[in-house]
Amino acid sequence: MSGTRAAEAVAAADLAARRAGVTLTELHGLDEMREACRVLDRVWRPVPGNPLITPELLRVFAHSGSYVVGVHRDGRMIGFCLGFLATAGLHSHIAGVDDTARGRNVGFAVKLHQRAWALARGITAITWTFDPLISRNAYFNLSKLGAAPSEYLADFYGAMQDEVNAGTETDRLMVRWELAGAHAVAAAAGIPRHVAVDDAGGRAVVGLDTKPDGGPAVGRLDGDAVLVRIPTEIEELRRTDPPLARQWRYALREVLGGLMAQGHTVTGFTRDGWYMIDRRQEIQG
């Protein structure tokens, strides 16, 4: 990786951190690891006695060269991210920020810091997973960052006991972010990857949509392009109508998971909640 590209990545990351009003630093000591675990507990709210990760394991990750980074504002740790070295390059395993920091582009600052960190070490790709039913995360990962989905993972973690995931099967979408690719470079410059349903033109069919009662309606999957809708607020739906939320989980698994299993490519996610799949392209591994 050229020194120029790595330096540009550092400059973009520094700018994103300043705009978000945070600093990001690698963690090393056990006290820092304990504070990072407390941040994760505040975000994910696991049941007592079942921590998401331990300070001792975080220290091993940090000592062995993985990405173990705290996010600070006004001298207080408000966020944390762990990424470990993997065959794809760097796998970003878990990240979280306090509720007080939501909506302030802290997550964007974290990803640009992670990108700069990786490029400085000659790592050119980062992978991570997210719940494909959460619209804001789909938009952030696919549009704002320009990461590309590579695999649909059904019930990947099995049953989880934290408050965020309890009561729902843990389907995840694996994405890959090519750090020197055009989409990542544009993202670092603050240029998101905008796509719209109209981009598919007359060749698109609707594979999944919303019924009048709010439930999922599976449609056609035979077009060159397939549009797949998800609810705007699945997390609220999980609280108010868990059976309906599960219907959406199974419908998305059938449609999006099925199309990806056949090798078709997710080309983007629209601001108004549609995955766009091109059946003429194959997923690039």
Please provide a written account of the structure.
The structure is a single chain. With 285 residues, this protein is an alpha+beta fold. The protein has eight helices and twelve strands. It has helices at residues 3-20, 30-44, 55-63, 106-120, 135-144, 182-188, 234-240, 242-261; strands at 23-26, 67-73, 76-86, 89-97, 125-130, 148-153, 172-178, 204-210, 216-218, 225-229, 264-269, 274-282. A seven-stranded mixed beta sheet has the order 1-2-3-4-5-7-6, with helices on both faces. Strands 9-8-10-12-11 form a five-stranded mixed beta sheet. Strand 4, helix 4 and strand 5 form a beta-alpha-beta unit. Helix 1 (3-20) runs antiparallel to helix 4. The longest helix is centred in the C-terminal third of the chain and has 20 residues, at 242-261. The protein is globular.
Sum this structure up briefly.
The chain is of the alpha+beta class.
